[in-house]
Amino acid sequence: MLLKDELPNDVDRISQIQYAAFKGHPMHKPGAEPTEHRIVERLRASNALSLSLLAEENGEAIGHIAMSPAIVGEAGQGWYLLGPVGVIPSRQGAGIGSALVREALQQMRKKGAKGVVLVGDPEFYTRFGFKGIAGLTYAGVPDQFVLGLSFSDKEPQGEIIAHDAFNVSSE
Q1: What is the annotated signal peptide range for this record (predicted)?
Q2: Residues of 59-98 as b/e, b for ≥16 C-beta within 10 angstroms?
Q3: Torsion angles phi and psi, residue 57, rounded to 5
Q4: Domain 2-162 has CATH 3.40.630.30
Q5: What secondary structure does DSSP assign to 97-158, as a single string?
Q6: How far is residue 41's CA from residue 145's CA, in Å, rounded to a whole number?
Q7: Which of 23, 43, 50, 166 has a beta carbon 3.0–4.6 Å from 162's, enabling a disulfide?
Q8: Where are the domains of the chain?
Q9: Mind listing the pLDDT tens digit for each residue in 35-86?
């Protein structure tokens, strides 16, 4: 498996991965169309994709992860929001998402990020060092799904403010 930075000719493949990965996902209302592909498209259009990694195997695009800047409470900038991360349905559970998360975290450390926050499944993300942190919130999301990983001894505190690209509804 090859993990690589997004290239211009990968854009459509990335949208297809994110759409397929979240089509019929339990977190979406039954019958609702996924929005994750549109989030990535909007982040890209706003030059807010801090990291966009594509997983390929034998030339086939099989997974993708995005990172974008986020404001976290009074700590302000230097924090990044992980997501969406998607893997094509036929390859889910094969370690592709885990490989993408590990590589993305390594690259964000090298870029000097303060840390990474996300909204997601604690059972999946705690294996990478993410944890629920008292006082770390995301509007409208139950606290158990709001996770953070600091790259220093200072834990993130306050409300996570994501890029406006995340304010998209299924249409």
Answers
A1: none
A2: eebbbbbbbbbbbbeebeeebbbbbbbbbbeebeeeebbb
A3: -140, 120
A4: yes
A5: HHHHHHHHHHHHHHTT-SEEEEES-HHHHGGGT-EE-TTEE-TTS-GGGEEEEESSS----E
A6: 24
A7: 166
A8: 2-162
A9: 999 999 999 999 999 999 999 999 999 999 999 999 999 877 899 999 999 9
Of 50, 161, 167, 41, nearest to 110 by C-alpha is 50
Vertex 143: Cα angle to 132 and 161 (nearest 5): 90
Residue 87 has pLDDT above 90, yes or no: yes
Pairing of strands 146-150, 131-132: antiparallel
- Token couple for 17: 């991965």
Q: What percent of the chain has pLDDT over 70?
A: 97
Amino acid sitting at position 148: G
Q: Would you list the DSSP string of 67-83?
A: EEEEEEGGGEEEEEEEE
